[in-house]
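Example A, followed by Example B.
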Amino acid sequence: MRWKGRRQSTNVEDMRTTGRRSVGLKGGLIGTLILAAIVYFIGGDPLSVINFGEVTNPAETGQEVPLSAEEQEMGEFVSVVLADIEDVWHKLFKEMGMAYREPKLVLFRGSIQSACGFAQDATGPFYCPGDEKVYIDLEFLEKLQTKLGAQGDFAVAYILAHEVGHHVQNLIGTMDKLTSVRSSGASQAAINQMTVKLELQADFLAGVWVHHGQKMFGFLEEGDLEEALNAASAVGDDQIQMNTRGYVTPDSFQHGTSSQRKNWLAKGVQTGDIRQGDTFSARRL
């Protein structure tokens, strides 16, 4: 992705100089965040799959942890991606006769308190509608870089665009559909099915961002789309469950199959039309 020297968002709260540091894999920006989605999309505690050692908590000792050059680059990269996402959704909301409210991106290390509760590194990337913030522990994501075959920096851009897709859903009221189902006393299987539709729509919205972002900024490099599509496929519920359990239970899916995730992301990229992303009314996901 072409990103260096471009505008960075001012909506980034970098909290990485405090919090627990953990022992993890080392690497540059490319490949550092590639498998971020494995945590968020796994539908459970990723520590059941991977165990990592921890060192001391600088916050407990009153010490601040300086950012390395690689960590600073990570922050700059996601700041540029967030800026592009902001510009695209401002444009699309204006075309819909609406005003886009920008979310905050919180970069943290180890653990942090959000309006949705206490988040730890095992939580993975998530969007909290309570404070309209996206939370990402970049250091924890680094530890996962060798756990799936997804590669490339644009996989990271897709992950962030997916999370902001949930913010878009929050602004237009789509998240209310899931809230309504949960409060209706529906079965867990029905709630899971609704959650899948919500997640697949967020994948579609990430694709819509790619479509319009490329037109506005020309940020794509050779192989970028393949990186995003590969990442979407790699974090399908069926593939995650097969890799971690050795078997698949469709009723427990909460994010969609590899094929579904890849297809809805691709549809967003191809059409760029938010009206074509109604996963809730689709006869076939």
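Example B, a separate protein, is given below in the same form.
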Amino acid sequence: MITVEHLTKCYGDFMAVSDLSFEIGEGHVYGFLGPNGAGKSTTMNIMTGCLSATEGKVKIGGCDIFEEPEKAKRLIGYLPEQPPLYMNETPAEYLRFVGRAKGLKGRELATQIGEVIEQTKIEDVKNRLIATLSKGYRQRVGIAQALLGNPKVIILDEPTVGLDPIQIIEIRDLIRQLGEKHTVILSSHILSEVQAICEKVLIIAHGKLQAFDSPENLETLLRSSNEIDFLTEAGKEETEEILSGISQITEWECSVQEEALSRVSVKVDHEKPREICRQLFFAFADRKKAILELSSRKANLEDVFIELTEGEALQEMPQEPAGKEAENEQRPAEKKEASEKTAESEVNADDSNMEA
């Protein structure tokens, strides 16, 4: 569904994205992770056609985003980090405008507006000014506009920012449902959220792809993926002697605690750390030395993220330089006015069928 080939974006001497390539299949939910300044937002803006690239290609459903922008953009629903809202309108009015701009009209427009309002649970506030809504509800309105037009690809940049815990759960459930019919790309700094929702994860740093796999596989491949911590009454020398007899233990750290107890942390080369725990228990029992505490820890997505991006002194991305591109950019109000003029001529005959 999405193909990115050798994508590069430079701002003067600063390279925000460097020779980035990946391919995303149809359906499912994909996580897009990286430290601040790693190139996530730049990549998403290029994929949605909001920003040009220095080099490379991006194809959405086989349509080149640069050579066939109208066809490609019809396949995309996008929620940027700052939702593109008009504060002096109600959600119903705003969604009606966005739907018209996407080419919807008549009964189809009214139906889709009703559906996205129900999906994002903004029925109670649809006729209130957006300026009076909480940040959480504004985020919901932003998600609703991304869903209009029934796009095949939905790109969400920090979609749960500002939501309360109950709203976060509801939006996560919505994203899972969307992944059954759409290709969803989710960017979030909440790693537990990505791990809970996404089936595959892309991690970038310094504009380069560091990993692309399922969260489970990334955890398995992590060098510190399995660790076992325990406290024993055996002394340090005896503990190390016992550990050296278990081949799956690759390295350990042992320190003497109060009352001559040994606190031990071991790393194991084994898919089932529980089996190593059993071996440790019986090995110390044979020496009549008790293990007083024993726990195994498996790496999570946060560990993977830190290990793949640690030591990255990421720079702040400079602003888009003023030039031909910047001069051609319209302010939101100007974009709205231009789009309304085009859309209004198409829907005058259908206004009687519209329902907010």
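On Example B: Residues 312-335, 345-356 have pLDDT under 50 and may be disordered.
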